[in-house]
Every structure is written in structure tokens, then in C-alpha cells.
Amino acid sequence: MEDMEDDCFVLNDDYNHNYCANSASGQVLYLRNELSDVPQPLSISPGLATRDVAAQENHSKVCSSSSSGLKFMDSDSSSVSSDTSETDSPSAVSIAGKLTLNSASKFLMNAMTEEDYRTTYWPNLEKAIDHLLIQNPMDHISISYEQIYSCVYKCVCQQHSELLYKDLMLKITTHLQQVSSDLQISPPRNLIENFNIALTRYTDALQCIVPVFIYMNKFYIETKLNRDLREDLMKLFTDHVAEKHVDTLIPLLLEAHSMPFQVRPSTMASVVKGLYTLWPDWAQLAPAVFSGFIPQINPPTVESQLSDYAARDQKLQMELSLNGFPRCSDRRRPGSTQIDKTL
């Protein structure tokens, strides 16, 4: 009886410590649980069991052949060899050739002509640039920066970089010429304020224009022209706006500097720093004004001129006192009397 049971139920252990039992009705696989050493039964159909037995026989044949000097090959290598043979087949080569021809034909069909650039792409870019240049900080304008970048990317990829760069420079030059004309008719008392608005609005617009044209800047301006887009656009403002009004601005800045608070300090600082950024040599036209906002404008201090510096400070204090600014010794700080009484 015990021999019969041994014939009907035999446990085999594989390298994963899974147990396989053979019986007359089929094959039962016991999987070892990761959390327990007790094998868990998993029923397998007779068809699958037959395939497993055939696979084991094939594996034993391959191993025996390898021991006799033949090359060992497992199922993975056989699948790779089959994939390679399928790829190298004439049908696969013909399919690859068709895909190459189709991709080339699609590229030719999607090629952008100069007429397409003029009628479709540049009008959209020009409209977006107009919004960025003339927008009011208080107004909200919805602009798709992704769409602008996509248009620039397509124009550069289709070999229209030079045309795009020329159109961009011409567009901004035309805008700056209009800005200069508006400043020309501005009253002198408002010129500093209006120049500050124009400069601030332009620099804010560049914060948006330069990033969306970065692909053109990287693959055309920096590579072929050896320049930078932002520097070129700032030079346009210098040539068409700042240079035409600097001779009028400097006397107005000197006058505002001699009369404190005639112009707001924030406006004075913005204009002076902006002019210095555009062209540092302009600081020599009014060192007294620029030295109040830009460091190291005046020459270094010399010990032999200390008496002149002291006389200059006394003169400044006298002018301030004559203009209604009392000295610190002439008045007490607010609340000082009350503090003395409490003490």
C-alpha cells in the first residue's frame, strides 16, 4: 500500500524550492510562500504539464549536447536569433525602406516656403510682439508663449532663421522710433518720468521676447553672428531712443539733483542706472548725479584733498539748512520730551 502511494504522489524540488507532485490525474505544483516554508498548492492542467515535461526534455538535450562540445543556447538566445532572422528578412527590409520613403515625403510635404512664412507664421509672431511691446502692466493680455515658441522653432528648423532675425529687428526698430517721437514732443518737466516709463516697459517686454526666441538665438545669432539677442535689442534702444534724448536728459537730471525731491528718488535711480547700463561713458557727463546711484564713479579719495572734502560737506549742509532742512541738533526726535518726563 505504501508503494502504491509513493507511485501516485511524488514530490520533486526545483532550484526555486518549489515542489512538484506527479499523480495519475495530472500534475500539482506546490509554490513556496515567501512568508512561510509550507508549500502552497497550485493546480496545473495536464496540457501545461505535458509542455513542461517537453521543455525539460529539450533542456536536457541541449545540456547534453553542450557537454559533447556543442554551443549552449537557452530560450532567450533562440528568441534573439529568431528576431534577428525576422529583421533581416526581405519583407522587413522592404518595410523599412517604405517607412524611410514615407518620412522623407512627409518632410517634403511639410516644408515651409517663404510665402508660408510671410502669410502664416510671421503675422502671428508680429501680433504677439506688438502685445508684448505696448502692453500696460495694469492690463491682462492672454498670450500663448508655447505657440510663439513653436512658430520660432519651426521657422528655424525650416532654414528661415536669417529672415526671422531681420523681421524681428525691423519690427522692434520701428516701435522704438515711435517711442522716440513720443518723447520728442514730451514737455521737459515730464521727460524724465516718460523716459523712465519707456525704458521700464521695454526691458519688461524683453523679459518675454528673448526667452521665446531662444532657439533662434542659440542656433543662429550665437552660432553664426557671434552675438546675443538681448544685447542686440538693448543696443537698438540705445541707438534709437537714448542717444537722441541724452543731451536733454542730462541737464534735467542735474537740475533735479540740485533740487531734492523735485523728481521721485525711485525715478531718478531708475533713469540713472538705465543710462549707465546702456552706455557707461555717459556717467562722465554728470559725475555728481551718477555717483549718487552708481559706485566708483568718482576718482578714489586722496589724503591731500581731505580739507576740500570737508569744505564740500559743510557747503552741502549749509544749502540744506537754507532750503528748510534743520540740523539734527536743532530738533529732538519725536517722543524724546515725553521720555525725558517719564525718566
Automatic annotation (TrEMBL):
A GO molecular-function descriptor: protein kinase binding
A GO biological process held by the record: ubiquitin-dependent protein catabolic process
Superkingdom field: Eukaryota
Pfam (any one): Cullin
Cullin N-terminal domain span: 122-255
InterPro entries: CACUL1, Cullin_N, Cullin_repeat-like_dom_sf
Region (Disordered): 63-91
Coiled coil: none
Composition bias type Low complexity, residue spans: 75-91
PANTHER family in alphabetical order: CDK2-ASSOCIATED AND CULLIN DOMAIN-CONTAINING PROTEIN 1 (PTHR46636:SF1)
Family: Belongs to the cullin family.
Name this polypeptide is given: CDK2 associated cullin domain 1
